[in-house]
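Colleagues,

Please find the record for the two-part complex below.
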Amino acid sequence: MTTICQIDRVSKWYGPVIGLNDVSLQIRPGITGLVGHNGAGKSTLIKLMTGELLPTLGEVRIRGLRARSAGAKRFLGHCPDVDAFYEEMSGRRFVRTMARLHGFGRREAGERTEVVLAQVGMTDRADRPLATYSKGMRQRIKLAQALVHDPELIVLDEPLNGVDPVGRGELIGLFRTLRDRGKAILVSSHLLDEMDTLADRILFICRGRILASGSLAEIRTMLDDHPSQIRINTTQARQLGTHLLALDLVQAVELKDDGELLLHVQRVHEFFGQLAEVVTRSGIDIERLRVIDASTQAVFDYLMNSFNHPR
Amino acid sequence: MSFEPTRYRDWSGTLRPTWLACWPIARTGLLLVLRRKIFWGLLALGLLNFLFVFATIYLKAQVAAQNPALSRFVNRVLSSVTGSGETYRDFMFAQGTVTVLLLALAGAMLVGDDLRQGGLAFYLSRRMTRFHYVVGKLLSIGLLVALTTTVPALILFIEYGLLSNSTAYFRENLGILRGILGYGLILSVTLSLLLFAMASWLRKTVPLVMGWTCLFVLVPALAALLRRVFDDRKWMLLMLWRDIRLLGTWCFGGIDSDREQQLLAPAAVIVAVVCLLSIIAFIPRIRAARVVQ
């Protein structure tokens, strides 16, 4: 898969404070989530990618061009988390101005503006001054200006902030459509629940370092210190528990009062294969099965715990 | 209000050259100023002065054509409007004073807010660099200055020429045209660089107005005091506004006295140094980060 953004051994110092520490990564088509606490380095990474900041060491390239160059911006769409608009301006004029700044002629800028306003559902409200917009409407306009030049790399800083649940679902749908069209989307968000379903790949960042990157399942599997917790509801809990204890991948089995089994297992995908065999062989019915700590939040907590308390 | 991802359309085509991005920035800045009522008040003040001179030129021309006897009286009463270089210089100077007030109030909106509220992120994510952003912003300030000083002066010059019923006025007074353009250029360049530098540091309207007041009121007052105490005219060079006017007078070819002639070169150096210092001052504010390696 083509690499759209290449970050090569990048460090960024703010005086004596390090914002980003020797980070290397590649952004490819698909949705990449960027997760980290406040001050972890998310904003620094985004600003380096958008050319707002220069790295102290290393290099950021978009499509082979230095991120700070005007040429690289052709491929970049940025939806910043700031709400610093010209409040007197209408949404339509704002997006059109951004298109003009990008190098579109008057007519083409107008056409592209209408296309993206329709995409974000703002066509009918775009003539109102920005000062009258709600937070969610501002997010939509910001997204529209980021998409107006059809970029290959779309960097979205907290794009779901202030958007109502219905809007969030629609927004996630739009991101998926863009992904299906081969766009690379980097989404920074503190809404980790959304990341579970949204991101193909997640970057966990802490104190300026990338703690882990990959799909959630891949990262979860790598966390050997934290066996996955699986809840199984069955009418024959004791019998199933006995069978499962015999498996090497199962570290512990807890039998709950309500006939529920809580398993601590390693290499969860491999375990599912073995579980299927056990169930088929013993003829036990499973009513419900849930992996309870494979969410972005759980993985993030484990990673943070490992980082803060290394063995 | 729902998203329509299915309507997404890819775009492929040729974009215009990057440097053309400066124009939308300048235009946006101008439009922002024109949208606020407070600025309309100041612009109206400038317009009043313009209309007065415009009407005076018209009145003098009409009276001269219809009643030459009355013309002498009118010329004596309205002696400030003669169609000479001085007329335009004084007009531009008066307009410039209103413009300086306008810039003090508009600086935060034109430049400061971008840096204070992070609006620069929108610009820098476009197909342009910081250089284009700076040029665009300077252009918007410069255009504002030109629209309130140079353009009205040019209109008056054309009016005077047209009402003289002969093209001789234009042919004989090309020096005035050069003066209007030269003085206008000095005003635009100096004020735009100075405002950009001050707004990039002070950012909010109140500090900016205070800084602007220091530069154009307190420092000249101090200069006048020092001149009186030390009895040395060179202290007058601290008055930036006066230095610009002196250069403007030179553009109109109107420096007659030796004393003014002696101050011309130092005044030019001071204006150039102010411009240079302004550039040096705003570069780190725009660059945001320094390359260590």
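Confidence is low (pLDDT under 50) at residues 289-293 of chain B.

Comments are welcome before we finalize the supplementary table.
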